[in-house]
Amino acid sequence: MAAGGRPLAGILLVCALSLGLSLFHTRSLPLIDRDEGRYAEAAREMLSAGDWLVPRLFGVAYLEKPPLFYWLTAAACRTFGVDELGARLVSAVSGAAAVLAAGLFARRTLGDRAGVIASLVLATSGLHLVLARVAITDALFSALLGGALMAYFIAEAEHRSFLPFWLLAAAATLTKGPVAAVLCGLTILGHLAVLGDWRTLRSGRFWLGLPLYLALAGSWLALLEARFPGFLYFYVYKEHLLRAAGDEHRQAFYWYVPWVLAGFLPWTPMLAAAAPAIAERLRQATPAGVAVRFAVVWAATVLLFFSVPRGKLVPYILPMFPALAIVLGDALARWTSGQARLGSMPRAFGSVGAVLLVAPAALPLAVHFAPIPVPIPYVVAVAGALLAAGAAVLAVRRRGDERAPVAVAAVVALLQCGAAILAPSIARRLTTHPVVEILRARLTAADGFVHYSGYFPNVPFYLGRVPYFMFGNRELDFGVSLEGNGPWLVDTMRQLEERLERRRTFFVLRTRERDLQALARLPGHVEVLHRGRTSSLVEYRP
Q1: Which of 149, 331, 463, 476 has the CB geometry, 3.0–4.6 Å to 277, for a possible disulfide?
Q2: pLDDT tens by residue, 33-50
Q3: In 10 A of CB 35, how many CB atoms?
Q4: Is 181 in contact with 169 (CB distance < 8 Å)?
Q5: Left (φ > 0), alpha (ψ -120 to 50) or beta: where does 337 sit?
Q6: CA 363 to CA 353: how far, in whole Å?
Q7: Higher pLDDT residue, 220 or 397?
Q8: Range of 447's domain?
């Protein structure tokens, strides 16, 4: 492991690995309907219209999130093309940046070996891997929030400027809104309470960057309020407070606990086995002990903060994963160097190896229920890789072997590459990709293009063209209340007929019998070109 000789090179290598895993085969995997589509299409419309102040979706102001993710994604699309790479590049770079930041922070506060292992743990933890591959805001937010908190700790511990903290906190606020400021504030207050030292808050050096934060984070809000009076009420009260208290995505208080355990795999058994070393470090009145306590407060703050509201989504907890990686990186570094005796750690690594050895037995069942035919050579290759990986992990699980974390990370990287190769074939059947392919071949500039039912913003992203949108969507209600329906939203078939002027028209719709029957009753020729699991395509000639 690079932890001995060139730790910085090791961290940079892991960062490059993270970026490579996030971008591997990304252009082969269609955007996920709705989730990736809404962010990618809003960025494309921003780039197309040249309006960098107001994000839009289907031509309507889309103000549920601040603009930083759209700005960066639009810039990526301008540079690399309006495709999957352009849409996902921000998340991939953010994931790699979080890995780099966690590694450098752990190296600076806990030692060279801890830095390499912390970066390795974060780069190969399950939830981080997944969210660094998809075009949604969470990877960017996690990187910026984590960067802000780490910058705060370094500034406090080493008596440096707090300006990097305020700058990164402002960027996090421009990604997800006031929740960034709340999480930073709660984490810092919790840390100072545990430390028993409140001098930082009484220091003018700390507050010196507040005007910079307000100028950067508040400027967009002020401009939007000036353009759309009442925006701040919607944004702060409805979009944040009411959503937190509402019934949308309602789950129990403890709902995140199993998701944290699952999302941190394959490192969850090692985190449990490291509990004695973590507890020992938490009791130490050393700089390293303070750093680990800070990371624990950070992780606990994120978990508790998002557990209190009734509305919950899995990606919300991603910002706690860099902190978990730092804590585990420190424990594994001390175990592999002989500084900590962890009798259950070999068994934790052994459990991962055992699962890998047993996993091939489940492959026939997975192939049987797979939505696509899986070639037998691929199954044999996967089974062989799992057996070899399991044997490798078991071989290095003995006490203090520094190759054990590397072996687990290598296994995750190989499995991720295999999944990335197989996923496009499955995704094409479960997304609107077949609809997009047909429209690319048939749709001309003279044809009408209508989004009749459902919500598939990835279709206009791929086609580079905003469709008429029948009936709209709840997400667009606030934008409609500000500016009306705009040029593309229509409420009735009569309005649609007036705009189409008897042109050949393609209807994208949810695969639902009543919608298909409604279109079949139109006067003229109606042909169903595609009927998939979630979406269908109908051609209509008046």
Answers
A1: 331
A2: 788 999 999 999 999 999
A3: 15
A4: yes
A5: alpha
A6: 17
A7: 220
A8: 433-541
